[in-house]
Amino acid sequence: xxxxxxxxxxxxxxxxxxxxxxxxxxxxxxxxxxxxxxxxxxxxxxxxxxxxxxxxxxxxxxxxxxxxxxxxxxxxxxxxxxxxxxxxxxxxxxxxxxxxxxxxxxxxxxxxxxxxxxxxxxxxxxxxxxxxxxxxxxxxx
Amino acid sequence: xxxxxxxxxxxxxxxxxxxxxxxxxxxxxxxxxxxxxxxxxxxxxxxxxxxxxxxxxxxxxxxxxxxxxxxxxxxxxxxxxxxxxxxxxxxxxxxxxxxxxxxxxxxxxxxxxxxxxxxxxxxxxxxxxxxxxxxxxxxxxxxxxxxxxxxxxxxxxxxxxxxxxxxxxxxxxxxxxxxxxxxxxxxxxxxxxxxxxxxxxxxxxxxxxxxxxxxxxxxxxxxxxxxxxxxxxxxxxxxxxxxxxxxxxxxx
Lengths: 141, 252
Prior knowledge:
The structure holds two protein chains of two kinds.
Chain A: H1 8-26, H2 39-43, H3 47-61, H4 70-75, H5 80-83, E1 84-85, E2 88-89, H6 91-100, H7 124-137
Antiparallel strand pairs in A: 1-2
Helix pairs in contact in A: 1-3, 1-7
Chain B: E1 11-15, H1 20-31, E2 35-40, H2 44-56, E3 60-65, H3 71-85, E4 90-93, H4 108-136, E5 139-144, H5 157-177, E6 182-189, H6 198-204, H7 206-209, H8 220-231, E7 242-245
Parallel strand pairs in B: 1-2, 1-4, 2-3, 4-5, 5-6, 6-7
């Protein structure tokens, strides 16, 4: 499924609420939830925090976010075998990731990248995009 | 002075709550002041009776007709409870069934019905409840296992496998949810005087009793008190455990 590019305006429209929700989930100051901070490296998020954030965002925005599917979404239409081999993201996979996570600076995409390390790239902006996509799929009543 | 168990005002779901051990758990938690919703599959008259009796006694008990094998129905019912009550504090996965037979004589349904209900049901309801507890950063999940999960019993491969799975599920989920202060434990009853165990008791008679150190069958309330303890704040420091309530059942 190809998704239309999310605009900066769309991101900025949801960002304040996303930041507030993430600060609640992570127990940090909302000012620390900068749009481009790595959630794992910058804000010490753990895997359960990602679930927590998704659940809170669902409530806050009255949307449904596919659970545990962020990496799958990032893979897009690319078959798994072409996206990764033996747990390492392929060249084609890296191109797909760069395009899906277009908000993330190029120097953060270190190769070889393990599939399990993909969440290290995620930032609040990644979640803003998830929210925008979810809103587009099921506009709030 | 009795200290406060912390159960009053808590929102609880008890699956398989219309009869037997489940009913005793519903009644005990409700009596302690919890807001309890019991899930039942097809015993609507029995469920209604539990609800009416509890309400007459001034307790807060409601019911939802849910087949725990149906994940979508579980998610919808759990969300209705959360929507109404605003949170979910206690989940008691009690719904379960037996279809005893020698393994070689079991048909597909004997296997799937028991595994889908006893294991699949625990997955379905817990999966729906956990998001609420993660956000709350609190919760008590109590799974009803069985002595059969750890000790061999003739004609119980399906049931034993399902309860062994519940024990393993409990330990794994306890690890996963500990960072959010959610505890996950099991109560493993022995032979309890309920409708479900009637056939076992009839068939085995005194042979089973002789293997119970206390020489008697248990009562549903005796299991309910263990669940009550795990649901209370007294068990805040207890997770990933299987508590046996079996009168001292000896291995075969």
